[in-house]
């Protein structure tokens, strides 16, 4: 193949002189011609083969100019060129050139000019179009040359400028960096800004003499800028084929830390890992060792050395907007992130060199799978290195429990739509984790390795991963040849729900029927098409007599069918557990007999040691949430908590604290609540007393457990806690120094709940006269405690008088919104609010109805949280009395009435069961003392 000899583009840019000049011609008639282009995707008639880019940033003027030469190939006959260019990027269309490459065997390569008739952007799209005089034939190759200019941003988009404080001189330093993810390369230079188009780049970048530029590839040579005496031009090695979003550089005064090469220590041929930092300390040595340790761990797992000569890690003290940005050969990271304890962050960014840069998603729709796979692997590598110390038992339970909660709602993501993408990524990560277990870790590892080998320097779609895993699993015998991972994964990823498995055993026959359905926790369960939702689910059964065997390989898959039968189960003297250690993201329900055997077994020391930690947590979590959803008796769910008297593992306690919080708030309007508080004290008091006072250098999990135990004991009215809180609060009141931090925050709520009116009013006065020197977040916290903690209506009424009726209120509209939101957290709050609105209806309606955001929130908070027939009657009377007067909130109160009716049915059915269990339990425990 002939090598194209490009003209040295440094000279071409000398006239640029960093001046912006708008020369783009906008075609007003393009909108009618190209309506079919969606997502700003480009036609496939032309593809890039390579880029040569010259960039000249002006840090002082916050502008840049440049020249790009793109070698193109015509896939079909075509008369136009489409490429991406952001609205803020100025293309000098009168200087754009297009030359066709002509090859003569005898005379080498020559160029033929092609006439460009006109150019312009598509309306409302970041697509630039060149209209050519003649059709260019298929298989032709051309060089497109475009001068361009643009602005350097302050936010982390495209090419941006940031600042940090020099640790030595304490002066402010400026730097430039790029963040081209996901499709911001078009902000920097005109290009084919699609991840599936991977080509090599040849790049030079200008910089001031006292700065250094770090690029994707190593520095090749440096020359004096031909015009600007205080600038240099850096030329870099040609990159391998890469996507535009992995292009990047940093221009800064950061110093490369002088370190001994560690490649020999770790027996690595490449790459060299460099750290660029604003400060020098022994911490850098530790971080450098961690980077190599993480790299070695990843390299060993894949058994594939990344084809990079170097990875530059740039620690920037005040990186705006983003915590880190890992691209091909560079990791730009906020300094605090780099120095974090643990390995997960470093592992996630370094894994991205293999999966994300070396191999790349074909389109952004595949980025979710890429992110999920990268995050899962990073967690695996971190746990390989430190045994899971970094996660403290929170992975994957934290994201799993949040998924259970969100995806079991009637309308997932209805309040925060931005959560949806994050939730989908977490769900995909858990599906990948499930496959790692069910296929076998060795099979999963070898399948991934072959996947990477087959896609080096290329792109992939999600199905490519599943195919590689299927082929490996069938070869290894861990997956039946009739099954396909693509179908399995698709059933989870494509549905915005999670399944629930129900097991009903026939103890005489040693069999069981296993059913699947959509897991719905929030009532009513009237989700459209729920009967059609089915999953491929691994059925992994652990028997009581084989609990010590770590077998996670699935022998049976529910192949999107509602019911299957399982044989060869133990007799009625032994329980079974399905989905031990939360291998798959789905809860499991059992028949009452199996639940009772589990409860009894866990109340023995042998049982608690035999059932793994995550499984104990799962059994608790599943039982309580299934009871709340209406799929399990609350008596059975309460029985599953009996072993907590002896449980001391923070991982198992985590779902219990969540349950106490949520369930306690839910029933606090009923007479059952007082008995529930006594039950809470029974279990938490021994735990809290055993934890004792805080000691130096104790584990974080112990500190967190003590804090949570104290919080819920205080909320339940545990006398020692209340006395301790009031003593501390009294010192705060009586001392001349009334700074907010004089009292531990965990004592404020119990004092406002159980303390006197005078103590509560002292807090209110402090909020009204809050010192300007203090953080506003402290005032917000104190106001939340004043509103959300009291157990007497008198306190709430006094606050509402001041906030809603007072002529010269010290409360802003944001304060009032906060008050409305906080009052929904307990029955005293929302009941007081409703009664207050009923009593002062005329004045409140006149004052707030024209302020739609306040009015709607007021009606929602006053009516939306009731859950009993008594509450329904209160809201219905209010609705009937003022029918037609609710304005914009009419639909809100009508929705509240529908929901309360549904919740009242639940309360009527379950509260008697709960009350009976609590009465029996408390009677037995008290009589035994």
CATH architecture of one domain: Alpha Horseshoe
Under CATH at level 1, the class of one domain stands as Mainly Alpha
C-alpha Rg, in Å?
33 Å
- Helix count, DSSP H or I runs of 4 or more residues: 29
Q: What is the percent of helical residues?
A: 40-55%
Distance between the termini: 91 Å
Identify the overall geometry: globular
Characterize the structure shown:
- Strands 1, 2, 4, 5, 6, 9, 12, 14 and 15 form a 9-stranded mixed beta sheet that branches. A 5-stranded mixed beta sheet has the order 17-18-19-21-20.
- By secondary structure, the protein is α+β, with helices and mostly antiparallel strands.
- Helix 6 crosses helix 8.
- The chain is globular, with a radius of gyration of 33 Å.
- It starts with 8 loop residues before the first helix and ends with a helix.
- It has a domain of 203 residues: Zincin-like fold (Alpha Horseshoe).
- It is built from 29 helices and 31 strands.
- GO terms for molecular function: aminopeptidase activity; metallopeptidase activity; zinc ion binding.
- Belongs to the peptidase M1 family.
- It is a lipid-anchor; GPI-anchor.
